[in-house]
Design goal:
The complex is a heterodimer.
Chain A lengths: L6 E4 L3 E6 L3 E7 L3 E7 L4 E7 L18 H14 L7 E7 L15 H15 L4 E6 L5 E6 L4 E5 L6 E2 L1
Parallel strand pairs in A: 1-3, 6-7
Antiparallel strand pairs in A: 2-5, 3-8, 4-5, 4-6, 8-9, 9-10
Chain B lengths: L7 H26 L4 E2 L3 E6 H6 L7 E11 L3 E8 H12 L15 H25 L3 E3 L3 E6 H5 L4 H4 L4 E11 L6 E9 L1 H10 L7
Antiparallel strand pairs in B: 1-7, 2-7, 3-4, 3-5, 3-6, 4-8, 7-8
Chain lengths: 165, 211
């Protein structure tokens, strides 16, 4: 039976999970990173749209776990395991982490995109989740949509061809 | 200080801050383009990050944003946001080239983008100096940073500081527009004070602390 899936939307500093045939999407990633973790066999996936690399520097209490790479990844994994995914089957695809503005040296915003990517890769490695594909960096915004039925990540950019990783 | 707890009076004060800044900016823009520019009364909104993107047409709307970081007594971020068409119109007026197409220039370094940055510099500079005069605070703007892309991709840079401490931003949004004959020019100023700066601005204006 073919069912037409709905699209689950994930906001900024937000995360959610999805089961085939639904798909999951987040819009306008700049320096933020979209982290997709999925179980290909079970056809479940989760997407986090993180804004910052590291929750330990925050002054906010309680910490919003969805906002940081280091907290969003373990949380997302836990949600997926609850949905029946197997930890050893989990894989990841990531996109984003661009530098949208050119800041001079000494700016605290320098390389925020790259720091987000590094923190994401570090967080995934810690949980032994292999990164199957990534489209990161550059100076361009990205809208991404993941389809757990095919494990394909569609990436749309302004004035560019849509790509699939 | 929690954004959600701001009183009506405090929000009014911030509206006035936006009003004074934009009023000055409009004068500068008007002189620069030699045409009449109008402004609306600024809106002050406490919004989630997603809601902020909706203020300018959604996270995927293509925008031209000129970002200034403000250093000094009350660190903040200021965006001057234009649609691509508006930015193109501004460049055409500035460079006296009525056929200029901005789309073809995206991703390149061009004299036209420099012109646009300079407009942003003059206009936003007058916005910030008005704030500085009004509050007697020392506010030092950075050089302009130009970004052309999806709204969410560029505007989240203004949220990096704020998001260290909050899931909401206070957006003081002033719209300017020139009701010309055929080509109307519209722009938005977004003033995003860092969480600690809000208290400093209130104090500078003689408001009692009421946490």
């Amino acid at each position: 039976m073919n069912k037409i899936g709905t699209v689950i939307r994930v906001g900024i500093a937000d995360l959610n999970t999805v089961r085939a045939p639904d798909t999951i999407r987040t819009l306008g990633l700049g320096s933020c990173v979209g982290i997709v973790i999925y179980d290909e066999k079970k056809q479940v996936a989760g997407l986090a749209h993180i804004l910052l690399p590291d929750s330990t520097a925050t002054r906010q209490k309680p910490v919003n776990a969805y906002k940081y790479a280091d907290t969003a990844i373990p949380y997302l994994v836990e949600r997926l395991l609850q949905m029946g995914a197997k930890h050893s089957a989990l894989q990841a695809k990531i996109a984003g982490g661009a530098e949208m503005f050119k800041f001079g040296s000494g700016s605290d915003l320098l390389r925020i995109g790259r720091r987000n990517v590094e923190a994401t890769l570090g967080g995934l490695e810690k949980l032994k989740i292999p990164v199957i594909a990534k489209d990161v960096g550059g100076n361009i915004g990205r809208t991404i949509e993941f389809n757990p039925s095919t494990s394909e990540l569609n990436i749309r950019k302004v004035n560019r061809e849509e790509i699939v990783i | 200080m929690k954004y959600r707890d701001l009183s009506t009076f405090q929000l009014d004060v911030l509206r006035e801050v936006g009003n004074i800044g934009a009023g000055n900016a409009v004068t500068a823009l008007s002189q620069l383009l030699n045409r009449k520019i109008e402004m609306t009364i600024p809106s002050v909104n406490v919004v989630s990050f997603d809601e902020m993107m909706e203020l300018i047409g959604g996270p995927e709307k293509k925008v031209v944003a000129i970002l200034f970081r403000i250093y000094g007594d009350a660190p903040s971020n200021v965006f001057f946001v234009l649609s691509v068409e508006e930015a193109e119109l501004l460049i055409r007026t500035m460079t006296n080239n009525p056929t200029y197409k901005l789309k073809e220039d995206i991703g390149k370094e061009s004299i036209e983008f420099s012109a646009l940055e300079e407009v942003g510099n003059i206009v936003t500079g007058s916005y910030i100096s008005a704030l500085s005069d009004f509050t007697h605070l020392y506010l030092q703007p950075s050089v302009p940073h130009l970004g052309i892309d999806m709204a969410a991709a560029v505007l989240t840079y203004g949220l990096i500081d704020i998001s260290q401490a909050s899931d909401y931003a206070i957006v003081i949004d002033s719209k300017v527009n020139s009701q010309g004959t055929s080509n109307m020019l519209k722009g938005n100023f977004f003033l995003l004070p860092n969480p600690d700066s809000l208290q400093i601005i209130f104090k500078a204006l003689g408001l009692e602390e009421n946490e």
